[in-house]
Write a structure and sequence with these properties.
It contains 1 helix and no strands. It is an all-alpha fold and 80 residues long. The protein is rod-shaped.
Amino acid sequence: MVTQLRIVMILFFVCLPLLNACSDDKEKKENKEKGVIEQATDKAAKEAVDRIKVPLEQAKTAADKETARSRQLEEQEKRQ
């Protein structure tokens, strides 16, 4: 009886770390996959922002040039 108890205890202490190690690998893989998904999401978001940002910046630059040109024309009219 004592021998059987020892065997069970030994198996328990040997199997427990193995079970724990297997579950950690699964969680690490899930975390790694989440990392890949997050990276892909971040990349897609950055590309979308760049695609929106560039035309807006170009429009702002054009508006600034137009405003500057309008002021320049007004100043020329005042001088004449």
